[in-house]
Amino acid sequence: MKYSYVSNLYCPKCGTRFNTREQHQLCSCGTPLLVDYDLETLQMNLTAEELKSRDDSLWRYHELLPVEDSENVVSMGEGMTPLISLSNLGEEMCMENLFMKDEGLIPTGTFKARGAAVGVSKAKEVGVKELAMPTNGNAGSAWALYSAKAGLKSTVVMPKDAPEITRKEVALSGANLYLVNGLISDAGKIVGKAVKDYNLFDAATLKEPYRIEGKKTMGLEIAEQLKWKLPDVIVYPTGGGVGLIGIYKALKELKKLGWVKGELPRLVAVQSTGCAPIVKAWEEGKTESEFWKDSSTLAFGINVPKALGDFLVLDAIYNTDGCAIAVDDESIIFEQEKLAGLEGSFVCPEGAATFAAIRRLRKQGWIEQNETVVGLNTGSGIKYPQSVKVSPKMLEKGDTI
Ligand SMILES: *Cc1c(COP(=O)(O)O)cnc(C)c1O
Ligand SMILES: [Zn+2]
Q: Does residue 173 carry a pLDDT above 90?
């Protein structure tokens, strides 16, 4: 049986198709490319039931991933993270079916490992020797580490304010590391130039087509873990939006395969009040966002002033009757403490933002008491030692006796 049912790449704006055997970046019209699969044939050859006996990693869905030869798979066991019932937090928010998909338990400590595993594997398959990327930290560490395992060279450019731990991970992996006094958008400009000058492969968010496919597996796993019965709402902390685009793509593919039925979950994009371009666009009913000036938030992974795939994120929200909502840093800190105290989960600020948004949406009645809601915690709190706020009074309790 074929390892992958990938058929081609296509441009969601102008429709041009490309093959998956060569290196591709954006479409010539400047749009991110998406991956298509031969789902009709796959439907005849695979049932959802057959997945049960497979390895607990995202490669269990290899037919729906773009890597064509299993020899090229670069894996550290990523995927199949737990879907945890949050009954204590749920009770406090007056919700009966609240779940957390916990991406803190994954190599490199954030869900960026999914995009890196699939993106690096496919880069290797199409003959990439050296890649470059801008990052807010987590993607850079994941791609640098997976590149090291794959034997690819990498160059990573990140804002000097990005979490220090990610800088260390990149440096230890042997990648070329550059720091910029600016935002990820400034890092992106530097990478863009380096890519041209030195003929590197540009692995920036959505400039290569396969990171989405890795992140898509979150959607596949949520469906499988809920026994192919889709939740009512999925809530996602949105920066570049790749995870949300990926989850939406996964759910549509599952529907075409006939593995899930009924309406798709309402998809919610959560941003920070300090950087909310998608929320603003959604509130104004627009199909694209505008650059958000002077953005800042302690949830570094969602500090993206203008996402290349904004139109795809908005499309996913509109098509599922979802919404976009911004939460402030104070409510992020509040929710981080709630999750630790009520559920024993030390989540990253982006993950805390997810549950701060769920709390608000429940209060407003947008989420109903008995609805099944899955919130994404995109990484471990342990990766953000600097941004965790603990009052001196609480720390006193830990004094030596
Ligand atoms: C990158 C990142 C996000 C945002 O992911 P996108 O898919 O780019 O929107 C959220 N949380 C964490 C921890 C991240 O590193
Ligand atoms: Zn195009």
A: yes
Structural domains of the chain sorted by starting position, each given as residue range(s) with its CATH number in brackets: 83-110+212-387 (3.40.50.1100)
**Residues near 348 by beta carbon (within 8 Å), at least 6 away in sequence:** 104, 110, 299, 301, 377, 378, 379, 380, 381, 383, 384
Q: Tokens 């024993």 identify what position?
A: 344
Using 50, 70 and 90 to split pLDDT, how confident is the model at 385?
Answer: confident
* Ligand 1 atom showing the smallest separation from residue 243 Cα: 7
Asked whether 375 lines ligand 1 (CB < 6 A), one says no
Nearest ligand 1 atom to the CA of 242 is 7
What pLDDT does residue 399 have? 65
**Distance in Å, CA 41 to ligand 1 centroid:** 33
Please work out whether the CB of residue 62 comes within 6 Å of at least one atom of ligand 1. no
Query: Rounded to an integer, what distance in angstroms lies between the CA atom of residue 321 and that of residue 67?
Result: 33
Residue 345 CA, ligand 1 centroid: distance in Å: 18
- Average pLDDT of the chain is 96
Asked if residue 103 lies in contact with residue 81, where contact means CB atoms within 8 angstroms, the answer is: yes
The CB of 238 under 6 Å from ligand 1? The reply is yes
The protein residue whose alpha carbon is closest to atom 2 in ligand 1 is 301
Atom in ligand 1 nearest the alpha carbon of residue 137: 15
Reported residue count of the chain is 401
CA of residue 12 to ligand 2 center, whole Å: 7
Residue nearest atom 3 in ligand 1 by C-alpha distance = 301
pTM beyond 0.90: the answer is yes
Per-residue b or e along 372-389, where b marks 16 or more CB atoms closer than 10 Å to that residue's CB: bbbbbbbbbbebbeebbe
pLDDT for 286 equals: 98
For residue 34, the model assigns a pLDDT of 97
- Taking only Cα atoms into account, the Rg of the chain, rounded to an integer number of angstroms, comes to 20
Q: How far apart are CA 25 and CA 48, in angstroms?
A: 32
